[in-house]
Amino acid sequence: MSERSAWKALAPWLAVFVLLLLAPRFLPRFQIYLTGLILTTGLLAVSLNLVLGLGGMYQFHHAVFYGIGAYTVALVITKTALSPWIGFLLAPVVSALFSLAIGLICVRLSKLYFGMLQISLGSLVWAVVFRWYSFTGGDDGIHGIPVPDIISSTDGAYYFSLILTAICLIVMQRIVNSPFGRSFQAVRDNPVRSEAVGINVKRVQLTGMVISGAFAGIAGSMFVVIEGSVFPELMFWTLSLEIIIMCLLGGWFTFLGPMLGAAIIVLLRTVVGIYTEYWTLVLGIVLMLLILFLPQGVLGYFLEIFKRGGMKAVQERK
Amino acid sequence: MDFASNITISALFQQTLVGLSRTTILFIVASGLSLILGVLRIPNVAHGSLYMIGAFIMYSVNLFFGGGQAGFWMAVLLSPLAVALISLVVERGLFQYLYEREHLMLLLFTFSITLVFGDLVKMVWGSDYRCVDLPAAFQGFYTILGFPFPRYNFFLIITGPVVAFGLWFLTNMTRIGKIARAAAVDREMVGAVGINVSLVFAAVFVIGCFLAGLGGALVAPTQNIRQGMDHAIIIEAFLIVIMGGLGNIWGALLGALIFGLTDSIGILVWPQFAIVFPYVVVVIVLLFCPKGLLKSTW
C-alpha cells in the first residue's frame, strides 16, 4: 500500500477519533457515559473476535477474562496499599495468566468440546468469586471503588476509555495483520494443512487466547473506571453469549464489526429499556431474525453489498 | 473455618439422599438435553427456559385445581405436556429450517429463544417468587434406618430410575427410538430409505422438551420458582451431558449422579464453597476423559 492510500484509509478513523475526543464538549453527561460503555463493551467484543472470528475457536466463556480484569483493578484498589495504576497494569497480566491456564487445559480439544470445557472452567472461576465473600465481596460485588481523581469524573472516565480503546484497537489491528495473525487465520481455515506446513497449531491457538484474554482484561479495567463497581455477573456465562452475539451482530469476519454490534446492543438495551422492561424480548426477536436472514452480520451484509456494487462497476467497465 | 466440621454419619446419609433426589431432577433435564444433542445436534440453551416454564405451569395448574392431591397430579401430568406443545410449535415454526446451520449459530439461536421466553414468563407470571405446596400425602417424613427423610424426596428418587427405564425402552425397543438412533448416526441414509427424518426429529425434540417440562414440574415443590432458574439449570445440564458423553442417556444418569452428590456432600465439607465442588469434578473428569465418561454418539 502506498503512503498516500494508507493515509486515505486512515483519515476517516482519525476523523472519528477526533470527533469522539470532542464529544464531551457538546454531548450531555449521560450520553458520554453511554459512549464510554459502548467503547468498553466494544473493545471486549473485538478482543473476543480475535479468537472467535480470526482464530475460529469456540471461545464460549470470554466474559471470565473481562471479569478477572475488572476484579484485579477493584481488588488492588480496595484491598492493597498499592497505587491504583498498578492495578490497571496488572489487569491485562492477570487476565492473560488465567487465559493461559484455561487455554492450556482446553486447547487440546476442538469446537464444541473446547467451548464446553471452557464454560466449565469459567463457571468454576465464577462460582469462587460468587462465594468468596471475604475477598471478592461474593454475590454483592464491590461498589464505590475509588479510582484515581483524574479519571473519576464522567469526562475523565470517558477520555480514559477512549484513549485506551484507541491504543488497543491499533495494537490489535497490528496483531491481526502480523505473521502471527496470518498463521492464526490459516489455522482457522485449515488446521490440517497448517500443521503440515509447520505451524504449531496448538501453540498459535494458545497465544491467540492469551492475547485476547489480555485485551478483555483491559476492557474489564475500563469497566471499573466507568461504573465504579464490580459484581459476579461480569463473569456469568450469559454475558459471554451476549458478547458472541455482538460479534455475530456486527459481523465476525470484519475487524470493527463487533464494535458496531456492541454499540447496537448497548443502545438497544438503553433505548428499549426506557419504554419497556422487556428489552431482552426485543433483543431476542431481533437476534432470531438476524440469524434466520442475515447470518453474516450487519457490517458483513453492507460490505457484501458494497463488494457486489464494486464488482458490478468493474464488470460494466469491461 | 468450619471446614468439614459437621460431617456425621447421620448428616452424610441424609445429604446422600438429598443428593440423590437432586440427581433425579438433573437427570430428567439433562437426559432431554442429551437426547436433543445426540440426535438433532442442537445445543439447546432454551432447554433451561422450558424447565422454568414447566415449573411455572405446574404452579398455575396446581392453583387452578385448588392444590391438594388432585392439583398436584394434574399439574405434574399437564405441565410437561404443555411444555411439549410449546416445543412442537417452536420446532415446526423455527428449528426445522435451521438443522444444517453451524453449532455456534444454533447455540445463539436457542439463546435468543431463551431471552424471549425469559421475558414472556416475566409477563405472564411476574417477577415474584412462587411456591407450590405439597399434597398431604407427600408431606412429612419416612424414617429410614432411624433417620428422618422427606417423603417427597423419596418419591423423586423412585421417579429417576422410572424415567431412565422409560427412556431406555423408548430408544431401544420402539420403532421411533430405533429410527432416531439411526438418524443420529447418519441422517441422510435414514432419509434415503424412505423415512421422514424431519418428523422423527420433531418427535425427538418434543420428547426431549417434555423431559425439561417434567423436570421443572417435579422440582417446583422443592424450591422457589423464580426468574433465573433457567440460567442456573441449563449450565448444569450441559456440563452433565458433556461429562457423561454427548447423546448417551446412561452418561446423563452418571453425570447427574456425580453432579448431584458432589453438590450435596460438598455442603457438609465446606458450605461456603459447596457450589464450586461440582464444577471442580467436571473439570477433573474432562481433563482425563475429554469426550465424557461414556461413549458419545458424536
Q: Give the CA-CA distance, first to last residue of chain B.
A: 45 Å
Assembly annotation = heterodimer
| Strand segment count of chain B | 2
Low-confidence stretches of chain A: 313-318
Structure description:
- The complex is a heterodimer of chains A (318) and B (298).
- Chain A has 14 helices and no strands.
- Chain A is mainly α and 318 residues long.
- Chain A has one domain.
- In chain A, helix 11 (237-250) packs across helix 12 (257-275).
- Chain A starts with a helix and ends with a helix.
- Chain B is mainly α and 298 residues long.
- Chain B has a two-stranded antiparallel sheet with strand order 1-2.
- Chains A and B meet through helix 5, helix 11 and helix 13 of A and helix 4, helix 9 and helix 11 of B.
Could you give a short description of this structure?
The complex is a heterodimer of chains A (318) and B (298). Chain A is mainly α and 318 residues long.
Features of this protein?
heterodimer, A: 318 residues, mainly alpha, 79% helix, disordered C terminus, B: 298 residues, two-stranded antiparallel sheet, 2 strands, 71% helix, globular
Describe the SSE topology.
The complex is a heterodimer of chains A (318) and B (298).
Chain A: H1 3-26, H2 29-54, H3 63-79, H4 84-106, H5 111-131, H6 133-136, H7 154-176, H8 179-189, H9 191-196, H10 201-227, H11 237-250, H12 257-275, H13 279-293, H14 298-317
Helix pairs in contact in A: 1-7, 2-7, 2-10, 2-11, 2-12, 3-4, 3-10, 4-5, 4-10, 7-10, 8-10, 11-12, 12-13
Chain B: H1 9-40, H2 46-64, H3 68-93, H4 103-125, E1 141-144, E2 147-150, H5 151-173, H6 175-185, H7 187-192, H8 197-219, H9 229-244, H10 249-269, H11 276-288
Antiparallel strand pairs in B: 1-2
